[in-house]
Structures are given as C-alpha cells and as structure tokens.
Amino acid sequence: MKTSPFSMLIFVLLLCIGAAVGYPIYKINVEDYLWLLGGVFIVAYFISSAIKVANQWDRAIVLRLGNFRALKGPGLFFVIPIIDRISYWIDIRVNATSFKAEKTLTKDTVPVDVDAVLFWKVIDPKKAALEIADFHSAIQWAAQTALRDVIGTTMLADMLEGRNKISKELQKIIDDRTEPWGIQVISVEIKDVLIPAGLENAMSMQAQAERERQARVILGESEHQIAEKFEAAARTYSNNPVALHLRAMNMLYEGLKENATIVVVPSSAVDSMQLGGLAGTTALAMELEDRHKKHAKPLEKKKEKPEKGQESEE
C-alpha cells in the first residue's frame, strides 16, 4: 500500500490533539485516559487512511467491495477505509522495455541475434489494470514474439540496411497487440544485429572485392577518357604542323630547362615532329644549355660578393 507523507502528518496531528484534549482526564483517571488514547488512535488511523495523494504521473485504481469504483489522481483524493481499496498505482509516463531475439532464422535461413528497445506509455489506466494481470511482462513478451515474426519474414540484407523500416513494422504490430490493454507504443529502436562470425568475415571480403571492382572500373573509364583526349590532340596536330612543331620545341625546353642534360630523341620522332633533323635538335639542346649557364653565372657572382666584402673587412 502506498502511504503519503501528508496522511502520516494528519495521523500524528490527530494523536497529538487527542492526547492534549484528554490530558485533564489523565489527572482524574489514568485508565480512562488510556481508553481515550486508544479511541483517538483508531479514529486517526481511519481518517489518515481515507486521505490519499497521487503524484502528477500516477493514477489510482479504486475498487469498492471488489468492483471498479473510480480512477483517481493526480493530487489529493479520499476513499472509504475498509470498503474502498486501491488495487493499482499506474505510472502514465513513458517507459522503456528492452527485448531481444536470439538465434532466430531470417527468411534466407541465417541465424541472427537482435537487441531492441520499446518505448511505450499507458493511455488508459483502467484497461491496463482490469484487462490484463501484468501488463509489463505482457508487453515484453508481445514485443519479443513480434520481433521473431518480423525476422522470419525478412532477408538478412534488408535487415542490415533497412532498420528504420523494420522498426516501424515492429511498432505497428506491437501497437495492435497492446491497444486492447490501453497501452500505446511510441517507437521501437533496433540496437544491434549480430550475425555469425564466419558470415561476417565472408561479407567483409565480399565488400572489399566490390570496392576493388569499382576501383578497376573507374581506372578503366579514366584510361578510356585519356585515350579519347590523346586521339583528339593527335587529330589537331595532324591538321596543324606548326602547332606540332611548337609543342615539340616546348617539350624539349621543358626537359632541359631544369638541368643541362642529354636528350635522346628517336629519328622517327624527329621527322614526325618536324624538328629539322638531328642537327637542329642538337643545336637546340646546345642553345638551351648556354641559356642555362648564363642564368647560373649571375647567381654565382651574387654569392661571391659577400665573401669579397668580408675579406676587405678582415
């Protein structure tokens, strides 16, 4: 039985008042005073038992001689002691119930372990108290059986990818089962889906192979695009010999401008790029080498000047 501090306070106050009122009798006859205290105790107990206080989230189911009398709360209310009885205190706040299905076969015969959480609340306390004996246990069992039914009709791939869809389907099934009990299902959340270790490794290898296949396809598409660009460039150079000649000169210059080196150019390439024969190519290389040396000499002089200045100071 749920006892409120307010009813206890009323009980103590009535006892104190009765003791204070009967104190003059105590001076005359102690035995009568004790009988008076006994009567005050009984009256205080009945009055305090009639006073009940329900919290904001509590609803009290009051039965009168075994029959439903009223739904009380929140706040202060009164009952008739002995005749009225509060059979249930029902919490109407949102509750969370964890449930799971172990080693349940999917539609493609894969054993899985699924953990989920059910969020629900009581919207009709009268039905929750009178229509079912223990609605907490009933909700958990209903959720577990519904989860097994959904797993048995779902492919493993759909279960791993479409958790939101499964959650909504579970919510509808469980809500239909608990509606006659005055309980509303707010949401169902799938926490985890566990599959056998061997199957998990196989799926990982499959995903890795799929990524490698996609990488090879992208590489092939890139090579195809590059070949198309080279083909377009070749057509441009074939129709414009001057552009080809300038491109060839630029390629040689780019190869020689950083470091003076020897570039070996096949004679077939020289003829096709119209570089004017091997002598012209050699002359171009020598000219680029001379330019490189001219650019390098001023840098060496700039480095030597500070050294001469230091010698003069010494």
Describe this structure in words.
This protein is an alpha+beta fold and 314 residues long. It folds into four domains: 5-90, no CATH class; 95-195, Band 7 domain (Tetrahydropterin Synthase, Chain A, 2-Layer Sandwich), CATH 3.30.479; 198-238; 240-298, no CATH class. The chain is built from eleven helices and eight strands. The protein has helices at 5-21, 23-28, 30-50, 125-130, 135-152, 156-161, 163-178, 197-239, 241-256, 267-273, 277-313, and strands spanning 51-54, 58-64, 67-72, 75-78, 84-91, 95-105, 111-122, 183-194. It has a three-stranded antiparallel sheet. A three-stranded antiparallel sheet has the order 6-7-8. A two-stranded antiparallel sheet has the order 1-4. Helix 1 (5-21) runs antiparallel to helix 3. The longest helix is centred in the C-terminal third of the chain and has 43 residues, at 197-239. The relative contact order is 0.06. Mean pLDDT is 80; it is low at 299-314.
List the helices and strands and how they pair.
Layout: H1 5-21, H2 23-28, H3 30-50, E1 51-54, E2 58-64, E3 67-72, E4 75-78, E5 84-91, E6 95-105, E7 111-122, H4 125-130, H5 135-152, H6 156-161, H7 163-178, E8 183-194, H8 197-239, H9 241-256, H10 267-273, H11 277-313
Antiparallel strand pairs: 1-4, 2-3, 2-5, 6-7, 7-8
Helix pairs in contact: 1-3, 5-7, 8-9
